């Protein structure tokens, strides 16, 4: 067998095992040559609908992204062409993690605003499949806005919320993304350059239905307050108001009330949301009565504040007693209904037989 035949056989075998054998060979060419070749193929920029060509461009740009000698502007056209190919085949050929990888690679080149918006739209629609590591993308600037690119996450969340149209999306996907964003907020909270307004933008990007419980978000707020000791009282209050106090578990509500970093008015509001309405209280006892307030005192001290244990612990007793009372009321109502039916049946029978009857012959419950 000649050398040519051996080379042909070897190359044929390589083609069967992988269709990317030529990627490395082509990567030594300059951007102008690659660009001219793609234009001759009729697949440049928005005309790119080839998955193989897109994968080659991603491979090619990956080899150039860390090269300091290259002018990144020369690769802008190739980067835009790669983005168009990714958008074309995104949902069938790329996972959410792979799309984030594409975003990281192509962000090193000057892609157009249109290409960036298109790529972010594709990622945003699949955001519920992302992981925490996917969202932790470093800020591309000098770090003046913070260590992580929070603005990107906010934009992706807006796309995701708009894409959730069905009830299934709102229930399943929203709850999944809610847990992910709470983890993300806890991760970025220690960043000293993260402003409270940015924290709030991320937290409030999702609707209330995205969280069954707000305990995870409260933990993120607690970490942020711990890392930003010089935060004003107004900013602390604004941060806490993104919580739904009714969706805090009782244990978390206790922690909030005892936390010296939480403004006193927020602690009181959170505790009030855990209390029962007036109709569940014993007769002649309203929440505003002096006797009730004496039994449930609220103490505010100079060195921060502290909610008395009697108020917090009393909530558990109120809830338990209320549930027990509702249960026994239901049992008694059912028993009384059965008893009245039996009484009516017995009276009818006695009347037919000509017997006299009196109420004393029946149980007191009736």
Automatic annotation (TrEMBL):
Q: Which PROSITE patterns match?
A: NPH3
What family is this? Belongs to the NPH3 family.
**What protein am I looking at?**
NPH3 domain-containing protein
Keywords assigned? Ubl conjugation pathway
Q: Which GO terms describe its biological process?
A: protein ubiquitination
Q: Where is the signal peptide?
A: none
User: Pfam family example for this protein?
Assistant: NPH3
Q: Per the database record, which ranges form the NPH3 domain? A: 20-277
Q: Which organism is it from?
A: Arabis nemorensis
Q: Which domain of life is it from?
A: Eukaryota
């Amino acid at each position: 067998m000649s050398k040519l035949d051996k080379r042909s056989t070897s190359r044929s075998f390589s083609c069967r095992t992988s269709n990317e054998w030529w990627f490395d060979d082509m990567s030594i060419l300059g951007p102008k040559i690659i660009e001219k070749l793609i234009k001759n193929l009729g697949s440049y920029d928005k005309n790119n609908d080839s998955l193989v060509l897109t994968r080659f461009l991603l491979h090619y740009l990956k080899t150039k992204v860390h090269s300091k000698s290259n002018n990144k502007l020369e690769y802008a056209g190739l980067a835009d062409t790669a983005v168009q190919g990714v958008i074309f085949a995104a949902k069938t050929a790329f996972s959410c993690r792979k799309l984030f990888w594409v975003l990281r690679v192509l962000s090193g080149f000057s892609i157009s605003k249109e290409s960036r918006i298109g790529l972010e739209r594709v990622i945003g629609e699949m955001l519920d499949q992302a992981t925490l590591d996917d969202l932790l993308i470093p800020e591309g600037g000098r770090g003046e806005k913070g260590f992580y690119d929070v603005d990107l996450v906010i934009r992706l969340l807006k796309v995701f919320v708009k894409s959730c149209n069905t009830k299934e999306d709102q229930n399943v996907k929203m709850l999944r993304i809610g847990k992910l964003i709470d983890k993300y907020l806890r991760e970025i909270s220690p960043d000293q350059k993260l402003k409270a307004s940015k924290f709030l933008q991320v937290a409030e990007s999702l609707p209330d239905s995205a969280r069954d419980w707000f305990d995870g978000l409260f933990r993120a707020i607690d970490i942020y307050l711990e890392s930003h000791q010089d935060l004003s009282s107004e900013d602390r209050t604004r941060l806490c108001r993104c919580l739904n106090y009714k969706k805090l578990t009782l244990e978390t509500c206790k922690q909030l009330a005892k936390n010296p970093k939480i403004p006193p008015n927020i602690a009181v509001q959170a505790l009030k949301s855990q209390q029962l309405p007036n109709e569940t209280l014993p007769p002649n006892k309203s929440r505003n009565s002096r006797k009730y307030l004496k039994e449930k005192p609220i103490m505010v001290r100079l060195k921060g504040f502290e909610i008395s244990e009697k108020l917090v612990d009393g909530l558990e007793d109120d809830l338990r007693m209320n549930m027990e009372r509702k249960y026994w009321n239901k049992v008694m109502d059912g028993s009384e209904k059965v008893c009245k039916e039996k009484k009516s049946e017995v009276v009818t029978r006695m009347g037919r037989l000509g017997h006299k009857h009196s109420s004393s012959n029946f149980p007191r419950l009736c």
